[in-house]
Amino acid sequence: MKSFVWKISGIVFISIIFIFLMSFYYKTLRVQSVPANGSKQIEKSQYDGVDLISDIEDKKEFHSAIHYPRFQSSKLNASIQSYVKEEKRLFHEQIQSQKWRLFKDSSNFSLTFRLYPVTDSVYSFVFTSESHSDGEKESKDFKIFIVDLAAERFINSQDILEIDEKTKEKLHVQLTDQFLQSKKYKKSFSKKKLNKWLNHPYNDFSNIYLTNKFIVFKFHSNEVTEGAESPEISIPLTKGKELLTEEWRKRLWMEENKPKKAEPLPKKPPIQKDEPIKSKKIVALTFDDGPHPKYTTEILDLLKSYHAKATFFVIGQRVNFYPNIVKRIGSEGHEICNHSFSHKDFTTLKKEKILEEINMTDQEIFKASGLKANCVRPPYGAVNQKVRSAIEKPIILWTVDTLDWKTDDPKKVLKIVQTKTKNGSIILMHDIHSSTVEALKLILPYLKQQGYEFVTVSEISKK
């Protein structure tokens, strides 16, 4: 009897080991099958000589959203691409380190940047990379590139700042004043840490960037504060002029003294009275991840030809690149809503970071269109109680997923719409694919023929 029990126990043990090894094997295969390059899109931007590359992957093992600029200079591109490639490699290395875990959640990676015009040909690019993997703490870092497109070169801090003992003393005074005036950093600021940072023998001041109004110092967490995450301190150029090299004093003040063109304020669409819609057969078309300089424009043309209204859930960073398209979306009576600034999974972020993603996008939407975003759609539709409690606006998901990102066949997208759409449906599409434009050419006449009226998601909520 005992030998029989031992045999059964042995079989169970071997079975568990076998299941574990097979699970590990297939998970390893999936990780190794991640392509070196994701599906990339290259788009023109409003900034001369700067294109936008987006590389977004949504896989079972990980979510990855990478955005970076492309220039006309191969020399400049090589350095940016090398940085992006290395950040991507480190993330996949992090995934590999988790392969021994039998049960694990998907990992998330975001590489985004903000662009700050300095002069006609000089821009600051501030990259932020963030990753989160099951069992590991969130990893965050930043990298700054200041680019002179006309000269086809990168500008380093030594070109901009007079780095000597006298300048360090002035800088210590100015940074201390700015920290102590900051409501956000005043309590966590450490004079001792700032002094240590300023006088560190290997400090190359690579944490600075310029805008057309400020010299900005961006620090790592705990570098000059106690607990503040990536603090930034801005010194107005008028106050920081004496910190600059003679070359940059001339360049920036020549730019400052140029006559500025007055920009017309965006026109708000006329206020229309709400009509009773309870008796109507209605549907809301929604578009995520834009704006796109080509496809969003084509979609707007199609919607106009059918007198159809839609809702665009925009990415804040892309709004910054294509403000005129967002302005057109609003001026033609469509609804503009918030889809985060950099397409991060909100469920992996702290509350303050979720709010930062929302607030930055709201600011870009208002700056471009003069309109306020009425609602939010979290990236990937990822929502939990933390996300719900952080976001005060209505969170809008969808009832019909067309899977337009997954197929190049417009007829398959139409088939999903035909099968799943009913009165009050919210249809999910993405205005960053050419196939979506082609699918919309089929969807609009079909839904109109079925008697649907096209409304915004806010109007759907009134039903």
UniProtKB/TrEMBL annotation:
Enzyme nomenclature, EC number: 3.-.-.-
PROSITE patterns: NODB (PS51677)
Listed name of the protein: Polysaccharide deacetylase family protein
SUPFAM superfamilies in UniProt: Glycoside hydrolase/deacetylase (SSF88713)
Tagged with keyword Ribonucleoprotein: no
EC class (word): hydrolase
Bilayer-crossing regions: 6-26
GO molecular function: hydrolase activity
Gene3D superfamilies membership: Glycoside hydrolase/deacetylase (3.20.20.370)
Organism lineage string: Bacteria, Bacillati, Bacillota, Bacilli, Bacillales
Domain NodB homology: 281-455
Keywords: Hydrolase, Membrane, Metal-binding, Transmembrane, Transmembrane helix
